[in-house]
Design brief:
heterodimer; A: 242 residues; mainly alpha; B: 2 domains; 29% strand
């Protein structure tokens, strides 16, 4: 566990070496808050439903790929992957350390949006159940997307390629869970859209939690897929030796 | 300390290593020599567990590289060909990170001070790695390989891109470490290892083509002795004089000598003492000798012959 900590500390600090992380965090917070404020003033409700309905798309398309792209791609490019994988540390621990660092960075950015519930508390009497559920779901969803992102980044040495592919994959997983996208697909191949909506799309699971209904199946869905991608990441790195 | 048995490595259809076997004893310094693309780096990557061999076995310090990679990594210090540095970190941060990852704990301070001294990094500690000169980058990376006082050092082209003074510095450092560590040092420049290494391994096209001390390898490729002589004499006169010398196999005239002077490379069977015989002729004919010396193969020339000899070019 100590090994994971060593990797975690270096990796987390590395986010703050370059301005890119700051830029993306600011974009993330401003984009989410302003998208929300538009709804907030229009509807005048003291809840965060519109915030959590746009969040998956912002996370999947932009923010998560932006913070996961460097995890392995940068190491591949600098050649430091050779250093990491010849340190006396298990590959699993390296993957976990890197993953947790990116998760921590995401949580910091997510914490930046907490100004909204504080604002709601001052202006009205919001129902905190769905808000807590929404944040809990956002942590699970972000964690899942990051696991996909770190896995994808191990295959490329160009960060931009990692970003685009992660963005495509996470964007697809998000959109397939939006009611009308599977309907369109069903129009082409009957049943396929429905199938993907139920078994692949993430939005359905996210929406359950975000409504304040914490369904244990959805939690297991996120956690198990996160674990799967981290495992695949470690295996892919080991496999590369051959 | 290091044992390779019939190691093969395929990258798709290309065979990077073909049945490479060698062993290195504790405390030996091995110069690993071969042209670019011969398989030096691949061999080193297998020893350091970064890459796995396709077949054959390799072990370091008794630990198999596939079965027990963590123990192998623990006793190895590795300087890869492409120096693995994080450009955004300070040199001190980088070395601290390596120290933590290598579990130095209580020994860290002492080892840290030692590598900084040994690699001459005092002035660079507070600098970002990205702004360092090539020499400092190389030394930072060498410090990384030495910080845990490893029993085995694998250095892949440690002096590439350095200036002559820096090369001497690295060579001296390696010489200081000799005999307490087992070192494999790769290079495509033979003179670089000729005076540091106890033994030289020559690899070409994925095969070990030479294994022995420098002199042994040289005598292996040098089948003919050669003497150069320049005298003031007529060419015809010279020719008749040396023609009948025993053991002369071939001669070639030096076309750059001035008028009235004959310069000639005489190739002979190394068993015959051609120098004494030539001396007698010089005395008999009362030639003025301008130049007279045995020729040794230059290091570069022997390197070329070593790596080509398998191809039958000899």
């Amino acid at each position: 566990m100590n090994d994971t900590g060593v990797i975690f500390r270096r990796e987390f600090r590395a986010y703050f070496y370059s301005p890119i992380a700051y830029v993306f965090s600011v974009i993330f917070i401003v984009l989410n808050s302003s998208l929300y404020m538009f709804h907030f003033f229009f509807m005048g409700n003291a809840d965060m439903r519109s915030f959590f309905s746009t969040l998956p798309l912002v996370l999947g398309l932009v923010f998560i790929p932006a913070i996961s792209m460097r995890l392995w791609s940068e190491e591949n490019k600098l050649g430091t992957v050779e250093l990491l994988l010849t340190l006396p540390i298990k590959t699993e621990h390296i993957v976990l350390g890197k993953y947790l660092a990116s998760l921590a960075f995401y949580l910091v950015a997510l914490a930046g949006t907490l100004t909204i519930p504080v604002l709601l508390l001052i202006l009205g009497r919001p129902d905190f159940g769905p808000i807590l559920g929404g944040y809990f779901g956002s942590v699970l969803l972000g964690g899942f997307f990051l696991a996909i992102g770190i896995f994808i980044s191990s295959f490329f040495s160009d960060q931009i390629v990692s970003l685009i592919i992660t963005s495509l994959v996470c964007g697809f997983l998000t959109l397939i869970g939006w009611q009308y996208v599977p309907m369109v697909i069903d129009g082409w191949i009957p049943g396929l859209g429905e199938f993907m909506y139920n078994y692949i799309g993430v939005t359905r699971h996210f929406n359950d939690i975000e409504r304040g209904v914490i369904d244990i199946r959805s939690v297991i869905y996120f956690l198990s897929f996160t674990a799967l991608f981290l495992y695949l990441n470690a295996k892919a790195l080991e496999r590369r030796k051959f | 300390m290091i044992e390779l048995n019939n190691v093969c490595k395929d990258y798709g259809d290309t065979k990077a290593l073909k049945n490479v076997s060698f062993s290195v004893k504790k405390g030996e310094i091995i110069g690993f020599v071969g042209p670019n693309g011969a398989g030096k780096t691949t061999t080193m990557k297998i020893i350091t567990t970064y890459t796995a061999q396709t077949s054959g076995t390799a072990s370091v310090g008794g630990y198999d590289v596939l079965e027990d990679p963590l123990n192998v990594r623990r006793i190895i210090g590795y300087l890869p060909e492409k120096v693995p540095l994080y450009d955004d970190m300070l040199v001190s941060e980088y070395l601290t990170f390596i120290g933590e990852a290598r579990h130095l704990n209580g020994r860290f301070r002492e080892r840290y001070d030692w590598v900084i001294e040994a690699c001459g990094l005092e002035s660079a500690l507070a600098k970002k790695i990205g702004v360092l000169s090539k020499g400092f980058r190389q030394r930072t990376c060498l410090a990384q390989a030495l910080i845990h006082d490893p029993e085995v050092l694998i250095l892949d082209e440690p002096t590439s891109g350095l200036d002559p003074i820096q090369i001497i510095g690295i060579r001296n450092l390696i010489r200081d470490l000799a005999h307490e560590k087992t070192i494999i040092l790769s290079t495509h420049i033979l003179p670089e290892v000729a005076n540091v290494a106890d033994r030289i391994l020559v690899i070409n096209d994925g095969e070990i083509v030479g294994n022995g001390s420098f002199d042994e390898l040289i005598s292996k490729v040098t089948s003919k002795g050669s003497v150069y002589i320049a005298v003031r004499s007529a060419k015809k006169d010279f020719e008749t004089a040396v023609k009948d010398l025993p053991g002369i196999s071939d001669l070639s005239y030096d076309s750059t000598t001035p008028r009235g002077v004959v310069g000639c490379h005489l190739y002979h069977n190394p068993k015959d003492d051609i120098v004494a015989a030539l001396n007698r002729i010089i005395r008999d004919r009362k030639w003025d000798v301008l130049e007279f010396h045995r020729e040794r193969l230059s290091l570069e020339e022997s390197f070329i012959r070593l790596t080509r000899s398998q191809g039958g070019v000899s």
